[in-house]
């Protein structure tokens, strides 16, 4: 690895260790254990389908945009995980606190973060009053992935970019 890449990796590990090892509390463990599921497949798919079915127009169009963004955002996630495999932090950083069972796929990028940002971005764009609460929720999902020991900060950052990028693109194309 080049010196700059190694330095970046060390900085990222420092951030990871701070969130995963130093910020633990009973409340945060419970909170992040719950909030991480907001970005999971069951929650994002089910909530998006329910919003598509039950929201009145024009909100139903935004829900459809969310569903399309969710679908297309996972193609790059799958390809990146396949062609650029990165071990999860708990495999590389022995002192990692693991609060749930280890995952078997690769770390980069975060699928939970990609999913939640792809679903929420169309609503953030169309309903400006929801921007801060929805961005906060999506960011907490990303932070939960680090806290729970499943992802490095860059996994979460790239997931947020992929998810929000797909949400913006779909909102523009189908707006």
Count helical runs: 8
CATH topology: Vanadium-containing Chloroperoxidase, domain 1
The number of E-state strands comes to: 0
Rg for CA atoms: 17 Å
Strand content: under 5%
Mean pLDDT, all residues: 94
- Uncertain regions: pLDDT < 50 for 5+ in a row? none
Q: Return the domain count.
A: 1
At CATH's second level, what is the architecture?
Answer: Up-down Bundle
Alpha carbon gap, first and last residue:
44 Å
Helix content: over 70%
The backbone outline, from C-alpha atoms, is globular
Estimated structural class:
mainly alpha
Biggest sheet layout: none
CATH class: Mainly Alpha
What would CATH call the homologous superfamily?
Phosphatidic acid phosphatase type 2/haloperoxidase
Give the SSE string: HHHHHHHH
Subcellular location: Cell membrane
Keywords: Cell membrane, Hydrolase, Membrane, Transmembrane, Transmembrane helix
Membrane topology: Multi-pass membrane protein
Protein name: Phosphatidic acid phosphatase type 2/haloperoxidase domain-containing protein
Describe this structure in words.
This protein is globular. It has one domain (3-174): Phosphatidic acid phosphatase type 2/haloperoxidase (Vanadium-containing Chloroperoxidase, domain 1). With 175 residues, it is mainly α. It has helices at residues 3-22, 26-35, 41-54, 59-83, 89-92, 111-126, 131-147, 153-173. The longest helix is centred in the middle third of the chain and has 25 residues, at 59-83. The relative contact order is 0.18.
């Amino acid at each position: 690895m080049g010196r700059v890449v190694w330095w970046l990796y060390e900085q990222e590990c420092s951030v990871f260790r701070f969130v995963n090892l130093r910020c633990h509390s009973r409340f945060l463990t419970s909170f992040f254990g719950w909030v991480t599921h907001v970005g999971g497949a069951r929650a994002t798919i089910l909530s998006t389908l329910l919003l598509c079915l039950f929201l009145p127009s024009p909100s139903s169009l935004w829900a459809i945009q969310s569903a399309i963004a969710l679908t297309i955002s996972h193609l790059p996630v799958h390809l990146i995980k396949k062609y650029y495999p990165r071990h999860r932090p708990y495999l590389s950083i022995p002192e990692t606190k693991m609060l749930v069972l280890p995952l078997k796929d690769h770390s980069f990028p975060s699928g939970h973060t990609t999913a939640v940002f792809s679903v929420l971005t169309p609503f953030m764009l169309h309903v400006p009053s929801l921007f801060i609460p929805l961005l906060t929720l999506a960011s907490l999902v990303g932070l939960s992935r680090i806290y729970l020991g499943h992802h490095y900060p860059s996994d979460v950052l790239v997931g947020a970019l992929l998810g929000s990028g797909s949400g913006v693109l779909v909102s523009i194309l189908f707006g």
